[in-house]
Amino acid sequence: MTQSENFSRVDELMNAFFAQAKAQFGSAVKAYWFYDGDLCPGCSRQTDGVVKFKSKEALALNAYIYREHGVLIGYLFCKTCAKTIHTAAQKNPYRQIPLHTQIEQFLNAAYLHHIRKQDS
Questions:
Q1: Residue 39: is it exposed, middle or buried by C-beta count within 10 angstroms (0-12/13-18/19+)?
Q2: Spatial contact of 103 and 88, defined as CB atoms under 8 Å apart
Q3: How many other CB atoms sit within 10 Å of the CB of residue 103?
Q4: Where are the alpha helices (DSSP H) in 49-97?
Q5: What pTM, to 2 d.p., does this model score?
């Protein structure tokens, strides 16, 4: 996958995630934001979000709702964090692990920085 193909696919998927979140949670989700930094929000390693899944390239794309601000935050993570989360989900589906909390704290801070920068 080229970088422009990745960005195009991420945009397409984030729109789908947002539509699904709006359908499920209504007015609780007002907007979406995509963290486009080069560092994995889980471990701060360089990442382009591309991982191998079943011998094919895939995007390690995830999203969650930052409830306090009503924003769906999307992000890509590295193959190490993707594997950690995927393995944990297979063992205990629908359960968060400490890595999720770490990612959300990192991204909440990044989002707040982003909106402050826009306000100035």
A1: middle
A2: no
A3: 24
A4: 79-91
A5: 0.88
